[in-house]
Specification:
Length: about 625
């Protein structure tokens, strides 16, 4: 079996060499390339400004590719190219070929579309709900609609405007059972559960709500005002008050809809988020100064090579597939060939189309809304929250990382005097502390208090442990971090970077800079400082990491100092020197455990005598001996 595996590796190496040689024969002209697997199936289509350069790049230093590119290249068995007259012509052809072949390693535009309905059911005490594909057989339906967003938003609006129940209670079975819920007390539900609303009146309200959905608010308001006046004339003040409340709720809903995006033109806003395994793209559609629709595209591991590729390809293919092309398309970030894609969309629409990245104002808020929706979609069914995803995504963009750093290690040097220099390592996974992976280091090779040299020693020891334990999946040191953050500035980064580079590893390295109040101020890289205070999510995460690594390292430094001091106290006891004192701590771990031991247990420690154990027992039980629980494990 081992021989077969080796033969397979050799065959693959030879195939890559032959593909690289074939790529070197390509012309330096624009065109499209199609990667094929062993069966001849097209698995990736791309465009190149210079075919030789782009295609050759796939077969050089294959092991240095990102995971997604590496997986694609390892499945390539052959490729072919189509030369074009211009880069723009190549872009049009690329889009067409992707649409025809749906290659595995290009993104697949799968969204949440399907048939959606507004359902009014059951017959008597009806509820208004959103339903997809399979409504109740005897339900009254409004639809079908293509947009799930429009349906859910409409249902939410009408339930609030007419104070309809949205709880799980069943009527009339649950009348009078338990107190009304919070929605009743904040005037978002009429309180059907109290049993005080007649069925005839409730059905009339449902009919008004359906009219509101079908005809809008103007006709509904007109009828409600007429009913309120009639009820007042009949001295039915309770009914008049309920009509008044519904009128007020509808007016507030309508006003809120009108002012949300007063200054925003008809446009689309597109943004993306990544959680390390998947990418989500969200497009918000603004029409008539209102948010009319939302579309989500969840892109799996093998679909988009990078976040930048996903952004370019989704925008290009989404609008080229026949979707309505607005005059303005706001993006969270620019992408390669955006000018060519804009030109292609203008040709398709027959008018001006602008792709742009808003820096501020309402347009920027819309893009951030789209990004938050993408982060929330990725956070669904994950052990971490939307806030964690957003923070990691923002940090990756801020630092120029290819993907969000799901596994972060942070280091800090701490000392109390030149003889107690230690370091702490904390780990954050998916934006949260992973405390069972924390590690502590005692500085061994650096004399005095040289923070830079101490940090270099710690990082060097950590990397050496990686090479020793990388084949042990349960080992903390056997896993490489996606990002290293040092508690320090550019000097720390400049000192440690050569250590990482010499190891042959490629780990992003940055420092966390504090202000004069010891609060996080910026991130330091080899090119200078990056201000982060305006990036709220990333700033909060980095501040939390910096505070945690400082807390952890200073706690170890203090415990180490306490141990050193108490070791010196023990050496004042006749018969106990430095070696015997250290053996006592290795045996009992803590001062409290040592103090709780009997004289016989003290005597049982290797190297101890009965006379020395008796002297130690008397010393530990003298008044004033510290009651400390600090652990003195050597690491």
């Amino acid at each position: 079996m081992a021989n077969g595996r080796q033969e397979e590796i050799e065959a693959r190496r030879e195939k890559l060499q032959s593909l690289a040689e074939k790529a070197r024969q390509l012309p330096l002209e624009p065109g499209v390339y199609r990667m094929r697997d062993k069966s001849g199936r097209i698995i990736y289509v791309g465009k190149a400004k210079a075919l030789r350069n782009r295609v050759s790049s796939y077969f050089r230093s294959v092991e240095k590719h990102t995971e997604k590119v590496y997986n694609m290249v390892m499945n390539v068995w052959d490729f072919d190219t189509i030369i074009c007259d211009s880069e723009f012509e190549a872009l049009i052809l690329e889009c067409s070929l992707i649409k025809q072949n749906d290659p595995k390693y290009n993104i697949l535009l799968k969204d949440d579309k399907g048939y959606h309905y507004i359902q009014i059911w059951p017959k008597d005490w009806s509820r208004i709900t959103a339903q997809k594909n399979k409504p109740q057989e005897d339900a009254k339906l409004i639809g079908p609609y293509i947009s799930s967003f429009a349906v859910t938003e409409t249902v939410d609006e009408v339930n609030k405007a007419f104070c309809l129940p949205t709880c799980s209670r069943k009527f009339p079975q649950d009348f009078g059972k338990g107190r009304p819920c919070l929605n009743y007390h904040i005037h978002q539900c009429m309180g059907v559960c109290t049993g005080k609303i007649p069925l005839e009146e409730y059905q009339e309200i449902i009919a008004q709500a359906v009219d509101f959905i079908n005809g809008g608010s103007a006709e509904t308001l007109k009828r409600l005002k007429s009913q309120m006046e009639q009820a007042a004339e009949n001295l039915d003040f309770e009914k008049a008050a309920r009509c008044r409340d519904r009128i007020s709720a509808i007016q507030k809903t309508s006003e809120r809809q009108k002012v949300v995006f007063t200054h925003v033109e008809d446009m689309d806003a597109a943004a993306f988020a990544q959680d390390g395994e998947s990418i989500c793209g969200v497009i918000l559609k603004i029409r008539g100064q209102r948010l009319r629709d939302k579309q989500e595209f969840l892109l799996g591991k093998n679909e988009a090579l990078t976040l930048a590729d996903a952004r370019r390809e989704l925008v290009m293919r989404y609008y080229a597939s026949g979707e309505e092309i607005p005059r303005l398309i706001a993006l969270d970030e620019d992408f390669e060939d955006s000018d060519l894609v804009q030109r292609m969309l203008q040709d398709k629409a027959g008018r001006k189309v602008e792709l742009f990245v808003p820096a501020r104002g309402d347009n920027r808020k819309l893009v951030e809304m789209a990004r938050n929706n993408a982060s929330q979609r990725l956070a669904n069914n994950k052990p971490y929250s939307n806030r964690d995803v957003a923070a990691l995504d923002e940090l990756a963009r801020l630092l120029g990382l290819e993907k969000p750093p799901r596994y972060i290690e942070s280091y800090d040097i701490s000392n109390i005097g030149s003889d107690t220099v230690v370091a702490g390592m904390v780990v954050f996974e998916d934006g949260r502390p992973l405390k069972n992976a924390y590690k502590r280091f005692s500085i061994k090779t650096v004399a005095g208090t040289d923070d830079y040299a101490s940090m270099c020693e710690v990082i060097s020891r950590r990397i050496n442990r990686y090479f020793e334990e990388k084949d042990q999946p349960e080992s903390t040191f056997g896993r490489l971090p996606d990002l290293i953050l040092l508690d320090g500035g550019k000097g720390h980064v400049s000192s440690v970077e050569p250590v990482i580079r010499a190891s042959g590893l490629d780990i992003p390295l940055f420092g966390m800079v504090k202000d004069n109040r010891h609060k996080t101020r910026a991130i330091a890289g080899d090119g200078g400082e990056i201000a982060i205070s305006t990036f709220r999510s990333a700033f909060t995460l980095v501040s939390k990491i910096q505070e945690e690594v400082h807390r952890y390292s200073i706690a170890y430094s203090r415990s180490k100092h306490q141990k050193t001091g108490f070791v010196m106290e023990l050496t004042t006891i006749p018969g106990i020197g430095q070696t015997r004192a250290k053996k006592l701590f290795q045996h009992f771990k803590t001062i409290k455990a040592m103090k709780s031991a009997s004289q016989e247990e003290l005597e049982a420690v290797p190297g101890m005598t009965k006379k020395t154990a008796q002297a130690l027992y008397l010393f530990l039980h003298e008044e004033g001996v510290p009651q400390r629980e600090s652990s003195f494990e050597n690491r």
